[in-house]
Amino acid sequence: MLEQEILGMKLSNPLFLAAGILGTTASSMKMVARAGAGGIVTKSFSIEANDGYDNPTIVKIEGGVINSVGLASPGVEAKKEELKDLNEIRDKTPVIASIYGDSEEVFSDVANQTKDYVDAFELNVSCPHAKCGFGSNIGENPELTHDIVSSVKDNIKDVPIIVKLTPNVTDITEIAKAAEDAGADALTLINSVGPGLRIDYKTARPILNNVFGGIAGPMIKPIALKCVYKTYETVDIPLFGVGGIRTYKDALEFLYAGASLLQIGTSIMYEGPEIFKNITHDLSNFLEENGYKNVEEIIGLSHNLG
């Protein structure tokens, strides 16, 4: 009932691990696969190793977290070994590599070096706490987004390209259309909101070492839903919905809004990896009880009610 085939990936269910949570090592990603995720998105990585920001890099807030990891990654050579170790799960749990860079050349180089070990790439052009030249510095600009996507598509012919968008723009559909026009095969909406700030009430100091960070978790769900809803009416490529999905009811909202696939990140901190099995179980029951034959029947349903 939840099975789908999208972007050449055969999926047992529409729930993916989102980039940034438990996607650092092969062992943690295998654990998430065993916990019932339909697919995996790795933590973002690039050519060179990056230590990111010093701790503290994450702080809880009501309804979510603020994080400022700074795109910490081991570099492509080390990541390549982790990806090779995931080959054993890819027949049942597709693996998407989240990659980042500060130029067309870097994105394309990372993709070329790892294309044999993944089922798709997610281009991170939207991190709100990346250092200058990375993340949302690209994704806030439709021309830069177009150029990055076009370059990767020209270099990588046989692996689907997904673009992860930032909500921190005036009109996300403008960026979405630029990515589609450049050849993107799908879009992920959304990356974290912000940046935001928390201050320690005792010391008057900002809690995060980097001062500001991206806001994620249940509190951003209404923003993510709006972005999915608007983008679904603008583009003709599949959408991954992400942002505060914690229960099957949240999943249904994103599917109704137009997402074909879903990603779960911060909510794992609340519910544990078993969140994947819990949501798929409840989602299957809902579909059966309401007379739906498969999940495709409800994708975009909110747009078709007359």
TrEMBL record:
GO-annotated biological processes: 'de novo' pyrimidine nucleobase biosynthetic process; 'de novo' UMP biosynthetic process
Origin species: Methanosphaera stadtmanae
Gene that this sequence comes from: pyrD
Listed pathway(s): Pyrimidine metabolism; UMP biosynthesis via de novo pathway
EC number from the UniProt entry: 1.3.-.-
Domain Dihydroorotate dehydrogenase catalytic, residue spans: 1-287
Coiled-coil boundaries: none
Residues noted as binding FMN in the record, renumbered to the chain: K43, S44, N124, K164, I190, G217, G243, G244, G265, T266
Protein name as it appears in the record: Dihydroorotate dehydrogenase
